[in-house]
Specification:
The protein has a two-stranded parallel ribbon. By secondary structure, it is α+β, with helices and mostly antiparallel strands. Helices cover about 45% and strands about 20% of the residues. It has one domain. The longest helix has 18 residues, at about 45-65. It contains two helices and two strands.
Length: about 60
């Protein structure tokens, strides 16, 4: 797994408010200053649903470059 500081894009998703708190903590530590990040609220997902969501997100990123 790649360290967060080496990522070019960060995609945070899931139910509840924890994802917003996570983004705030990451920003507080200056990890996201030069990163593109997205946050999305979702229902609880199964592992195959998570994989499909990430694949879709990555494919959109690749086609937008």
């Amino acid at each position: 797994m790649m360290p967060l500081k080496e990522a070019k894009h960060i995609y945070i998703f899931g139910p509840g408010e924890a994802k917003i708190e996570l983004k705030k903590k990451i920003e507080k530590n200056n990890v996201l200053l030069d990163k593109s990040s997205d946050i999305e609220t979702t229902d609880k997902l199964t592992e195959p649903q998570i994989v499909a969501k990430v694949k879709k997100y990555v494919s959109v990123l690749l086609f937008s470059i």
